[in-house]
Amino acid sequence: MMAVKNILVATDFGPAADSAIEYGAELARTLGATLHLVHVVGDREQPEQAWQVLDAAVAAMKPVAVTPIVLNSSKTAAALLHYADTAHIDLIIAGTHGSLGLRDALDFFMGSVAQNLVRNAPCPVMTMRGPAAAAA
Q1: Using alpha carbons only, what angle is made at residue 44 by residues 41 and 46, rounded to the nearest 5 degrees?
Q2: pTM for the whole structure
């Protein structure tokens, strides 16, 4: 069985990402792994605001070992994939909005970030649906 020592949870601070963070923190706690909580800021977002939100999330996750990361990039998926590769990530967890109707299997991932991670990650990827998608 593969040892999971580093888990990356990608967050955009939305409800689906909150589900991913909650699951990732519990998994990291159970496995004794380090949780890499990663947010990618684009052109219009301020890194300082992202750091504040991440710091608050980290404080709520103790005693889990958490490494908060803010990356600057206009290409979210590429930045996450690069970080996963260089940080030797064993598992990526990302939120997705999910599918609400009968659609093509690829449309399950409404965002191109989750789809790109699933297709190109150097490790397994788990997607988490947010509370609204799960209820539907």
Answers
A1: 60
A2: 0.85
pLDDT in tens, 19-78: 999 999 999 999 999 999 999 998 888 899 999 999 999 998 888 999 999 999 999 999
Q: Which helix (H) or strand (E) holds 39?
A: strand 34-41
Burial class (CB in 10 A: 0-12, 13-18, 19+), 60: exposed
Nearest alpha carbon to residue 119 among 87, 89, 78, 69: 78
SS3 101: coil
Q: Which helix (H) or strand (E) holds 26?
A: helix 15-31
Within a 10 A sphere around the Cβ of 9, how many other Cβ atoms? 27
Count each helix (H run) and each strand (E run) in the chain, helices first: 5, 5
